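Pair request: fold both.
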Amino acid sequence: MSARPVPVPRPNAGGAPRPVPRPGEDGGNRGPPPNARPPPVGRPAPQPTYEQESYEGEYNDGGNDYNQNYEGGYEEAPPVHQNRVPPPAPSHVTPYGGRVPPPAPAPAPAPVKLNNRQDHHGIPFASETEATSAFKHEGFKPIEQNNAPIQRKEGMVKQGDEKIKLKNRIKNYLANDGPKLVFIILWVLGNAAVFGERYYYYYFKRPDVFDILGHGGSLARGSGAALKLNSALMFLTMLRNIISFLRATFLNSFLPLDKNIVFHRYIGWAIAFWTAVHVVSHGHNFENIENYKGNPANLVSIGQSVPPPTARSIWFTSIPGSTGHVILFAMVLMFTTAVKSVRGPMFNLFWYLHHFFIVYIVVTSFHGFAAALEPPTFWYWIVGPVFLYIIERIIRLVRGNQETILQCAVGHPSKVIELQLKKSRFNYKPGQYLFLNCPYIAGQEWHPFTITSAPEESFISVHIRVVGDWTGDLWNFMNKEKKLGVIQEDLLKAPDGGPIFRIDGPFGAASEDVFKFKTVMLVAGGIGVTPFASILKAIRFRLESGQSSQVTKVYFYWISRDRNAFEWFNDVLAALEGTNLNNFLEINIFLTGQLNKDEIKTVMFNESGVDHITGLRSPTYFGRPDWKNIFAEKSKIHQGSQVGVFFCGPAVLSKQLYKHCKKSTDTANKTVFKYHKENF
């Protein structure tokens, strides 16, 4: 067996041996003290193990300071034959990598009194961490100071830091999602409560039912109670006028009113889940009834005849079975057309079939009329919400039938049409939206669109991009020649003699809250710029009229793949640039689409001082925004304050912004990025 080789320093670029750190400078690879005895003759010298590591060191060579970054390592001498005395080490290096010859045998010096702040040379360590790692490497036990070793003190600090970090993470999450989380918890607890109460009742207090149906009876009644609760809540999420009224009250700070459409979907999926539990449980129950051989009195107590009917007859001839099939049919039509892949391109189909909720409500009210186990109570739960919903529809019907004039229609690039409408008694705020109906295309279809005009203007405008069947029909109806610019003016009646348009609203939206913040970030994706057009116009009018505004700084980001899209609101942005008092507005335009060769040359050699893409003084950036660096920069600039982040656009970009808002929020120093997203 050969002895370990002696490490030799790798020469540097100049040919001289590379400087070797003295013991204590290599991050823990320490040799023994200088007074260690040399190894016995005839045995290989013990060699330390050197690991490959990335090392950054600063050296002084003849007065020239320079930094070196290299991969640490050593060249090895040829192996020594077994049982042979190793050759003496060179005069400039020791077996441990030192730069002095091995010391001559001498009496051991007096031991140095060390503490946990010094290495074995008596040289102080730079930090407690270095001291702890060094003593651990050399097998020494650190001396306790203040009755606690260093390791224990560091462990206590780390544990406290973890608790603080966890507490801050919870606070940061609640800053954006506190009301939503509270609502979801209460909703889940409500479902669990009504389900558990019915399950407990039929499991413990109705032994006659459990004797026949088993757990299926308890599951069916519990899921039925949960269906009643969620059916009632479903209507409350669609009371747009009441929700808009509540947004102007203090309750807006505690209730997630902007999430009404999100909760509408959550509740819809909950109804689907409880329906599945209800149907499967009843299938189990019907089989148990058919096969029951026990006390006939128990069958009579649950409303069944003696002898018991077959499961097939209960499924199709009984009141619960027959009405259940109708309810399931209505739900399948509503759910399958409500998914985004169907609702987007075929909104007409979604709109009509979603009104099968009327069938669902009416038939479900009769579903329990057989009163086999308990009197029907479904209508108890829904009578209040349905009454409010009927009042809501009456208000919208009366308001929507008021006369509306099409003052002007303008065709924009990328198949975007702008409608400028006039209507008496239509008071709105920047950032709100309305419902638009064109009876000539579809008499009962109402579609939501953000208002792009400001309250100070004499008309109400909306910008509509062609994305589905209804918007496609509107484009063909208003712009038969497929031209840009003004395409229609001063229209009151459609070709069939009916009203050209009907509008209903306004309704509150998340963008209303812009004026509650001093600093805001407005982020738009494509046609999602519409709510911010109204807000920027309103800010412009307030500045021109000398009115005070809560907003003192606006960061505006507009991302689009089509360069022609920036023409939609160029006049608004240009006017704001011209009256940019105190530099309150920062415009950031991002183009994600490709340019041809001529456009690239024009952009590269443009020296006019005006951006070639938008015509603004603010430059256009090519590619997607680096949100990580953007939020990091804003966190430093606005540390200790609240920043309102408002977004309208695709869901993919919304998720990115929401993630960065949560990461950049730091409640410890009162820096909060409050996220708002448009939901129709």
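--- second member of the pair ---
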Amino acid sequence: MATSDLEIPDIVEPDSPTSPFLGVKEKVDVRLDSPSEDANGEVTEQEFDEFDDIPIPPDGGWGWVVVFGSFMIHVIADGIVYSFGIFNVEFIEYFGSGRGETAWVGSLLPGVTLMSGPIASVLTNRYGCRVVTILGAIISAAGFILSLFAPNLYFLYFSFGFLGGLGFGLIYLPAIVSVGYYFEKRRAFATGIAVCGSGFGTFIFAPVTNLLIQEYGWKGTILIHAGLVLNCILCGLLFRPLKSPKEKREERERLREKKLKRRQTKDNTKNEPSKENEFSDLRRKKSNISDPGTRITKVDTSYNGATGLSEDHAVVQRLRSASVHASSQYQVHHGSQSRLGVMARKDILYSASLLNIPMYRSHPELYSMSVTSLAMSIPDVSRRTATDFKSMMKEMIDFTLLLDLIFVLFSISNFCTSVGFNTPFIYIPDRAIVDGIDADRAAFLLSAVGIANTVGRVMFGFLADLRRVNRLWLYNVALMLCGLGTALSSFCNSYGLMIFYSAVFGCFIGAYVGLTSVILVDLLGLEKLTSSFGLLLLFQGVATLIGPPISGWVFDGTGSYDVSFYIAGSMIGISGLMLFFIPCVRNFENRKKGIKQEEIEMGKKVNLGSVLNVDDHKAGNVTVV
């Protein structure tokens, strides 16, 4: 079979702020050939099959239908969650309860949603986005319907808060994962469209919910919301699972075999022998049928220095052999019918452009080889055990990360942000009513938060993809400004200033929602994104759970929301301020490990070493860590 040479551009730009290597350029020659070569630097047929299990994102096509489904889920789910402040006013009046006691209903809903993230990940990995989304919609709708019979707030804690939050948790994750599964090159754009549904939902649901309550009461409104949540079932049906190249090839072969069998039944006896031979030839050629996609068969890397003398492709060889060896070992224990689950891609939760990852930018083929996690593979049905579930949960929640000082610092920051995050969403309408604003105009304040949040997500997402922008600093400054605005909102004593604060809060809090996964990759590397994100969701869930009740109890004790917003704003502002110390902590750890600053940058773990677990392996004149 003829071969072709492809030269891939330099691995990094020397001035890239997120580059894992400093001032080093590599040239990679990739030969594209059939998988039937020998093991001397060539990919064998067995290796071809392993990489052929990975579905190829189409970056379009049905993917845009998936984006629409994800967008609508964000509109419905986030619209209901972030407009709870309208219900909060009604619950206080209906049950005659205090603000702190009532706030548990509104904090349980997003809190349980976040804390159920790891469970949703395991279920999505095993059963797919479609099934989990449908299950989540049914659970949430059932919880909302049960809320109609609530005799007290404690019943609402379970029905509206816990069941509703659990269902939303099962809906949210597939809505994000499905977009990442269908898109690679255009992922940032596609994900941006999907998550913009959150702001649109808040913008629409706040006034509509207020209008529905005036017409049908809070019980009738919750029943209508339950019906809207059931529409997420239709959205989930749009999340069609992708087929891997191997599955597509096998499906084509089955279709061809069926056609041949139909022809054989129609042919006369005279032509039957030739058809039998044709059918046998097809079966013999089955292993030689290749997908239109190409695979890596030989990779040579060379240091592109002044002399251009040294050549080293040991890293690539070890990457290939380690991947295939691990896959074969996994199949020994779990059966040959094991397949890669939806969550097997280590970058599936990465919402920004993959061009921010240096390996993808310069070596997309190598990136594809290293991006899967075998711990998230799905064994054959007959071999599924509790051990498989535990391994997947361990992949999602890795408590050894608590030994990483940088992750601990980022987790504390996220905890502080989450404490103050939901206070404005829940109490802005009630605060305005207490200050003498009518209910209709008070509800519009949440609409202002929603539309500004949409603008903020788009703006910060665009800025974060600019190569010259320091994403950590952008994230920190946004949180500090958001916290400062929240703390000073007590001085907004007119409706116009209230709208201005709502817009400021919605815009700058968009950085927190949109850049968390991006910052995690910058700090810890892509290898730890899934496990760190799962653990981070637990911190966020606990903080979200306790934040609004604390603000409510402060109001019950002082009779004013001023102190509550002082506390919420201070927590958000401190969460941004403390992250400015991360570079200092990074430098301290580097010196402690004997790593020179000029050899490594903050994104150093996004490299071959993190995949191979290689220490002190030399690639050119660079130490891979």
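Observation on the second member. The two ends are 38 Å apart (CA to CA).
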